[in-house]
Amino acid sequence: MGFREQIDTTRLPQHIAIIMDGNGRWAKEKGKLRVFGHHNGVLSVRDIVEGAGEIGIKYLTLYTFSSENWNRPKYEVTAIMELLISTINKEIKKLMENNVRLNTIGEIDMLPQKCSTELKNAINKTAGNTGLVLTLALSYSSRREILQAVQTIAKKAENGELNSADITEAVFSDHLHTANIPDPELLIRTSGEYRISNFLLWQIAYAELYFTDKLWPDFRREDLFEAILDYQKRERRFGMTSEQIN
Ligand code: FPP
């Protein structure tokens, strides 16, 4: 029996977040340039989006470009931005067919203008879709996101719009880029690295972490299903005892 058939679709994580890692190493293993890895990484993105939608995942968030990634060689940054534009153009029809709603988190206005314009158009076009919400984290830094939330909240307190006693976890969450998205229950990182790398630090407080040695361009829907199965075998206790949960 394949992994997909073993999944209990009544106990799916609502939200899966993925740190897509290993494109560069995948390409290097094949004696190719890093950009070749990113191109093949897009094929994995497509397969994972389809696979997630197929089994009924509601939210999928992909760490596509971190704030730190701006420090990569200029040609690589340019190639990733061009790949982003061409992928959105190529995939928009599929996103509509599959009822996927596109969303972004991060400092989108830091992206080249063509890129942010294409993204905003695609977000508007898919805004009425009711299936999977696909969030791309672009020019994203979780610490920066948290700091911006703190600044906005502090300003509201200064203006008398908010009392400090009213700053609850829910209020804080509402000031993050992920305001309308539930926290991920499952976080996956590929390529054998065991780090969070400034991704959704607040939001993953209770997420199950899943690490795989597979490099991102080799990670396909069967691997996603395997990760979901692994998640379903775990007991999520949220600080309680096993007896209390059962
Ligand atoms: C990580 O591999 C990958 C990235 C930083 C870029 C991710 C981009 C894509 C998959 C393509 C564009 C995506 C979309 C949604 C259109 P790495 O380069 O850090 O690999 P390494 O650790 O082996 O160097």
Mean pLDDT figure: 97
Number of strands: 6
Q: How does the helix and strand content classify structurally?
A: alpha/beta
Radius of gyration: 19 Å
CATH class division: Alpha Beta
Query: How are helices and strands ordered from N to C?
Result: HEHHEHEHEHHEEHH
Overall tally of domains: 1
Estimated helix fraction: 40-55%
For the record, the CATH architecture stands as 3-Layer(aba) Sandwich
Beta-strand residue fraction = 5-15%
Q: What are the low-pLDDT stretches, counting only 5+ consecutive residues below 50?
A: none
CATH superfamily: Decaprenyl diphosphate synthase-like
Strand order of the largest sheet: 3-4-2-1-5-6
Tell me the distance between the termini. Answer: 28 Å
- List the bound ligands: farnesyl diphosphate
Annotated CATH topology: Undecaprenyl pyrophosphate synthetase
Morphology: globular
